[in-house]
Structures are given as structure tokens and as C-alpha cells.
Specification:
Helices cover 70% and strands 6% of the residues. With 454 residues, the protein is an alpha+beta fold. Helix 4 (81-97) packs across helix 8, helix 8 (181-238) runs antiparallel to helix 13 (356-431) and helix 10 runs antiparallel to helix 11 (326-341).
Amino acid sequence: MDFSHLLKALLRRKWIILSCVGIAVLTAFLLTMNEKKQYKSVAQIATGFTSTDDVRLTEERSGVAQTDIKFNNVIENFNSSKVLSLLSYDLMLHDLTEKPFTTPENKKGSEKITPPEGAVQILTEKLYQLQPLNSNVPAENKLLRFINLHHYDVETIKSNLFIGRVPRTDYINIEYTSPNPDLSAYAVNALVREFDNYYVKNRRQRADTSVANIDSLVQQKKMILDGKIAAKTSYMSSRGIVDVGMEGSSKMAQISSYEAQLAQEKGTKQTLVYRIQELNGLIREGRRKNAGPAARSTVDNEAYVSLKAQYNDLYKEYIQKGANDAALKKRLDDTRNRMRQLEPSNTVEAAIETNVDGLVQLKLDAEGQLRGTNERIAMYQNMIGQLSGGLNSMASKGAGIEQLDREIQMASADYTRAKEKLNTAQTLSEFGANSFRQTLLDSLHHRRNHRTGP
């Protein structure tokens, strides 16, 4: 269709179009001419949920879902009846003590609207205690009706209130709309103030409960730790243990000393065994060469025999006394030397050639020393066995003490963690741990800029 044809068609119906526009404007004016002006005020708080700069008492890791839940919980608390009731009482208390925001009109023929007696005191106490009015109490029930007349009831406040998170930020906006700009501004600021009081007090009450519970837990953990320490002390006392490590080191040192002496005695034993074997060979050889009695043309045989008998008696006495009598040993040596002086030669070879008895005597000496060595070897082995058994017992005791030490360490760690939780709970109870900060405080300038309505 040509544009000129369309324009001509519209011009032919211009009066109809203008009439419709005029009627619409007039209708809109008539419908809104009596509507009250509405003023919207906005306050803003920073929650601190997404900030990582603040110093926190505990390590918290939260994702997007957990952060959304936190924001939703805060918004629900703002919209809760408890918090809105506090705002209601705050608004009513303002109107009773300062220039009122609203003044309810008296109906014709009705009694003059007056506040109940003691209304200011009741509202002040309820705000301080964060408690709602009780409709079963006559004075408080009358005060509730008085609040409703001023349209400060919870339902009216909730219908004028909007609370929402600023998308993708850490902030929450609080908007209130009313016919009075001063009322809108006061309402948003008072709501932040009452919410802060309510939130901090609740957190503090929960923290106080946690402090009591955790303090009981700390005492329980302390009793467990003391019990473990007492059990270790009793265990060591019953077994006569002063220091397992020191006692074990002492026994190891004794074992090392005895083992060294045992090795030395075993070496001596081996030497004596070899010596006895050599003497046995020499004796056999001497007896083979000297089948008959030896000639002693130049030796006083009677003196030699007498010394020999004396030597044998001394030797038996020496052996009976454990082969450790120094005086007898000296007498034996002197007798032996005198016997040798009566022999043709002082060497072992001469003794082999002239008299086998000397070799027998040497063998007897070696066998006596061997018996003493064997006794000392047995003694050292017995001592080492006893000490080794003691070490095994020490190992068993040490294992028991090690187990007790592990239990003490675990109990101490539990006690330390419980104390840390108690310190955290006490800090929360003292300071409330509120991270909310009001970043936008509504003023008269803001109220006029946010005016809505015709």
C-alpha cells in the first residue's frame, strides 16, 4: 500500500483518533487525581559474605550455592515477623515521643484515639528485650490495636517493604514506600538498626549456649588427659621404671662389657686347649723315649722325689682353693724352680728327655687354668643371658609406655582442639561476629530523589 493512501485514510479518521486519546488521558487523570503520593527510600548493607579481606575466626570455604543460602537466610530474617515487629514498635515509639509520621483520623461518634497508659515504657522494654507484644495482656493488646490504627502493623509494613540482593554483589537493598518521605527514610534506617540488634543478640545467645557446651567438653577432655597421664605414672611405678631409655642403655653397656670379657676368656680357653694338646703329645713322646727309669747319676734323686711329693700336695691344695691363691701359687713356683735345679737341664727338651713328670705337671697347671676359664665363661654367659632377658622385659615395658604415650598425645590433641573451639565461641559471644555494615543511609535528599507516583 502506498504511504500517501495510508496518510489520507488516517486523516479521514483523525477526529476519532484524537477523541480516543483525549478520553484515555481524561480517564487516567480522573483515576489518579485522588491517589496519594508515594515516596520510596532505599538503604543498603554490605553482608561481608563474599569478602575475603576480613579476618575470620575460623576457616570457611563456601561456594556459590552456600553464599546464596546465606543471602536468602538474611533476607528471610529481615522479612520475619520478629524483626518487622521490632520495626513496628520503633515506628510507634517514634510517633509517641517525637513529631509523628502518621495521625489516625477519629471517626464521627467514636472516642478520641489515645495511646494506652505506659505505652512508651512497654515499647521501650520490648525493643530492649527483643520480645513481641502479648495479646493476652490487656495493656499490650490495647497497644497492638493502637499500632494497627497507625498502620504500623506487620502486614502493612511487609506490603510496603522490599528487600533484595543487588545481583552479583555483596550488598542487599532495603526499600520502603509510604505516603510520608520522612516515614520511608526512617523505616529503612530503623529496620537495619533493629535487624542488627536482633541478629547480634541471637548470635550471642547461640554463642553463649555453645560456650557452655564446649566448656563442658573441655572439662571432659581435660579429665581424660589427666586420666591417661595418671595411668602412665601408675604403670611405671608398679614396674619400678624410672626411665626406660636410661635403664635400657645401662643394661646394654653391661652386656657389651661382659661380651668383651667373654670373648677374651674364650681366646684364653682356646690357647689353653692348644697347650694341653701339645703337652699331651710331648708326654707321649717322652714316655716312649724313656720307657725305663731315668738315670740320675748327678742328681739327688731323694731330694727330687721329696720336692715332687711336696709339689703335688701344694698343687692339690691350690686347685681345691679355686686356683686363685697367690701365696700357694708362689710356693708352687718356688718348689718347681728347686725341682728344675735338680734336673740335668732347665729347658722343656731336657725335661722331656730326663723326666716326663715335669710335662705332666705343666699339663695339670694348664688344665687347672682351663677349668677356671670355663667357669668364668659360664658366668659371663649367664650374666649376658639375664641382662638380655631384662632387655626383652624392658622392650615389653617400653611398648606399653609407648602405647600410653600415644594415648596421651591423642588426648592432648583433643583437649587442645576443644580449647580452641572454646576460645572461638567466647570471642563470638563477646563481639557477636556481625559482618553487616550499612553502606547507604537514607536522607531527605535521597527521599526526594526516590519519590514515585504522579
